[in-house]
Amino acid sequence: MINISKKYITITATYCVVSLLLLGSAAFLLMVPESRSLDALTQDLEKIQQKHHSITETGSPQSKEDTIKHLEDVTRQLDDFVVDSEAAAKLTFSIRQIAADLKLNNFSSKRMESQSTEIDKELKNLGQIWIEVKFESSFNQFAKFVNQLERHYPVIFVEQFSLLRLQNEPKKASVKMGITFLTQNQTVAGL
Q: Which CB contacts under 8 angstroms, 24+ apart, belong to 176-180?
């Protein structure tokens, strides 16, 4: 009789353990998607609360000051990249001055009309002016010229260049570059 009760207890215990494991697995499988949904809802709630906070703060004097400061910062950053109509001609002169300081031989530049356009239909007041630059120099002079162009304010972009070694002077090259700068739209039409 003792053997039967041990067998009965073992079967019952095994049945209970298997049942608990199955119940735990089912609960886990049901809870994982729910926890993910809860996380997504929590994130959505946080976004809505941030929007609500920003909307309620919009009318405050501090918010107005912050907006004005942000606008001034953006304008300052834009000035680093965009040239107004008066400065566009000065920028071309500035490029010539850099070339003269580096003593680049046979320097010439001309505007490439076919590529000077509006950048994007969405940005109606922003245009791009391409200038083709040609000169002869050593590689070191060329590197210094590119370095000074890319450090210039407002920013001048070196879009493309080609170097061809001169036949009569192997240490020098004939350089052809395409450089651009951003400008306000009336400058694109006016230059």
A: 176/132, 176/133, 176/134, 177/132, 177/133, 177/134, 178/112, 178/115, 178/130, 178/131, 178/132, 178/133, 179/95, 179/130, 179/131, 179/133, 179/149, 180/128, 180/129, 180/130, 180/131, 180/156
